[in-house]
Amino acid sequence: MTGTPTPPIVTYTSGIEHDVTPGTATDTSGAWASVIFDNLPEPIILNGFTVSSRYYVETCTTAPDVNGNDVETCFRSYPPWTMVSQTLVKSSPSRQVFDTDDGTELFTSVPGPYGTTLSGITNGTKYEYYRVFDRADISYVARASTINQPVIEQPKTLPTDEENGYIMDTLTSFLPDDREVVTITYTLTTNYGTGVDVFTISHDVLQDVSDVASKIKGYLSKSYFSDGKYHAQLHELEEVDMYDEGGYLIRPDIYKIPEYDENTKLINTVSDVAAEDVISTQIQSNPKDLTDLVNMIDGYEYPS
């Protein structure tokens, strides 16, 4: 006598499936490919870091095999869907890690009907070393600053070198953050009408903690004083500070680019203050000692 066949059991689930580029992903989390600071003081320029998201319906059928054992088989289909809302935020760390903080660093798709949405880090956004590795001890004399400008300690910003290749007058101290990696975490939240999907993306940012020499030389290579270009005469002695304590330019109206002749003598001078005066005032040194220090750093082999 033949028994009544057990009808298959069919279940349906739905949700949002993500693909992380470049990187890996599961249903609930993903990781972008790691990046490394290997050319300080240059930032890490981020391009192509995206998350594509699509709605799925998963159909699972449970039925007995030839031996009477229940076997489940599943497949996913991807019908059109409507994205109600989508947000992507940096959830950790709480501090700023990008070169800008104007809300354009991350992007998502606008609400509407989709097959696949796209979100991620806006191309051209930059990770800044001193923001990501915020335990680094960095101090510098601000670029083309007035003679009494205090040394910038633990900067909140650094100028770019797009202007003339220099980002500072000179580096006064540098001790790198001792962490080899800082993980930045992002949270993507997608409302698809019948549910809300929360997806976490991690991004490891690396550095070589043993390579101190190249980091120092990198900063010095973009400093005026390391090239023997002094400019104490660029501003009047009584001129007020141009930068705040975080390194932000607060007096752009008096900022100007130093101009030099072929002998690195300042051309656009306004006073007769000697270069030795500004070096002595700002970093308690003199041109010879500063040159010797740069040469020593250039040839020094730091222990690994």
Question: What do you see in this structure?
Answer:
The longest helix has 13 residues, at 287-299. By secondary structure, the chain is mainly β. Helices cover 12% and strands 37% of the residues. A hairpin with a 4-residue loop joins β16 (181-191) and β17 (196-207). It has helices spanning 129-132, 212-220, 275-283, 287-299; strands at 9-21, 23-25, 29-37, 44-46, 50-64, 70-77, 81-83, 85-92, 106-107, 112-114, 117-121, 125-127, 137-141, 152-153, 170-175, 181-191, 196-207. The protein folds into two domains: 9-135 and 181-209; 137-175 and 228-295, no CATH class. Strands 1, 5, 6, 9 and 11 form a five-stranded antiparallel β-sheet that branches. A five-stranded mixed β-sheet has the order 2-3-17-16-8, with no helix packed on it. A three-stranded antiparallel β-sheet has the order 14-13-15, covered by helices on one side. It has four helices and 17 strands.
